[in-house]
């Protein structure tokens, strides 16, 4: 369940209470008259079944409470209550299948912002990938995959496309279009410094190596990207974040970016192009799969609600 708190202007309190009383997925309703200071008004709290949250939020926003008051949500880890059990049973669908769109928009919106932290993590990930390439270390590449923060903007792109939010698409695209070139340039500088110091030469990526899969783009690259994108979005929409680690270490976005920097400095232009293709296939495959998952879940929710109301 999710804990809902509403800061509500006094003139809208009764209508907000009616919304929460009327929905079978809401319970543990509490009113604190006059408790809100800024913005001034009443405070309403309730526990809402996850599968009912989207409908409840839509009804509260229709009252203008997101503009003239405030609405917050928090995850409840444990709820020992027969009333809560009844609310979850009465709510449409299953909690694991429910998409709380406002929660998803807030989460992906935050993770898609271009800031120093995002660029730093992506740069460090690509530097690790460059080291993994020149040392032929698959373990180092896996570490780079885990560090890479690129799934946040990719998920935001999918959400923005499905919800037709141009601002979210623009913000996520900017993060990727700025972050990856900066990270690739950093990998190239590291490779150049290593080359100048005599630590490596073109033979470092010539011949057969364990990490050659990074630039070997093919049908399976797209298959893996699609599966990873689907798993990642399912994880985000069902609040099962543990699965995201598996997503991070199954796609070769960061390793491909790091390989571009290394191969460019060493003059291996065929591998630069192959790595760029690998990067593009993974990025596109993840976004498409994530968007399809969202559309599927959106349609499933639309079919469930009329049946429940009826």
Automatic annotation (TrEMBL):
Parts of the chain that traverse the membrane: 114-135, 141-162, 174-193, 213-235, 242-266, 272-295
InterPro entries documented for this protein: DUF389
Record's signal peptide: none
Keywords of this entry: Membrane, Transmembrane, Transmembrane helix
UniProt cross-references to PANTHER family, sorted A to Z: AT15442P-RELATED
Protein name, entry field: Membrane protein
Organism annotation: Actinokineospora globicatena
Source species taxonomy: Bacteria, Bacillati, Actinomycetota, Actinomycetes, Pseudonocardiales
């Amino acid at each position: 369940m999710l804990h809902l708190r509403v800061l509500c202007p006094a003139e809208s309190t009764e209508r907000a209470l009616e919304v929460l009383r009327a929905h079978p997925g809401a319970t543990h309703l509490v009113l604190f008259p006059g408790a809100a200071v800024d913005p001034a008004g009443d405070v309403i709290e309730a526990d809402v079944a996850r599968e009912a949250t989207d409908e409840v939020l839509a009804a509260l926003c229709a009252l203008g409470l997101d503009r003239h008051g405030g609405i917050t949500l928090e995850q409840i880890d444990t709820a020992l209550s027969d009333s809560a059990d009844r609310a979850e049973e009465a709510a449409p669908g299953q909690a694991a299948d429910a998409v709380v769109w406002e929660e998803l928009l807030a989460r992906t919106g935050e993770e898609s912002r271009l800031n120093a932290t995002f660029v730093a993590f992506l740069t460090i990930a690509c530097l690790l990938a460059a080291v993994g390439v020149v040392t032929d270390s698959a373990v180092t590449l896996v570490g780079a995959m885990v560090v890479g923060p690129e799934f946040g903007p990719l998920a935001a792109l999918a959400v923005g496309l499905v919800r037709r939010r141009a601002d979210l698409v623009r913000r996520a695209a900017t993060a990727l279009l700025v972050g990856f070139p900066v990270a690739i340039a950093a990998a190239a500088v590291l490779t150049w410094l290593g080359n100048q110091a005599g630590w490596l030469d073109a033979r470092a990526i010539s011949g057969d190596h364990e990490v050659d899969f990074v630039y070997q783009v093919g049908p399976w690259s797209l298959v893996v990207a699609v599966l990873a994108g689907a798993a990642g979005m399912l994880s985000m929409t069902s609040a099962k974040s543990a699965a995201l680690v598996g997503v991070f270490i199954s796609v070769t976005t960061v390793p491909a970016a790091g390989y571009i920097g290394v191969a460019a400095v060493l003059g291996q232009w065929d591998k630069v192009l192959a790595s760029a293709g690998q990067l593009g296939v993974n990025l596109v495959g993840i976004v498409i799969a994530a968007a399809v998952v969202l559309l599927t879940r959106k349609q499933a929710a639309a079919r469930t609600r009329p049946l429940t109301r009826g």
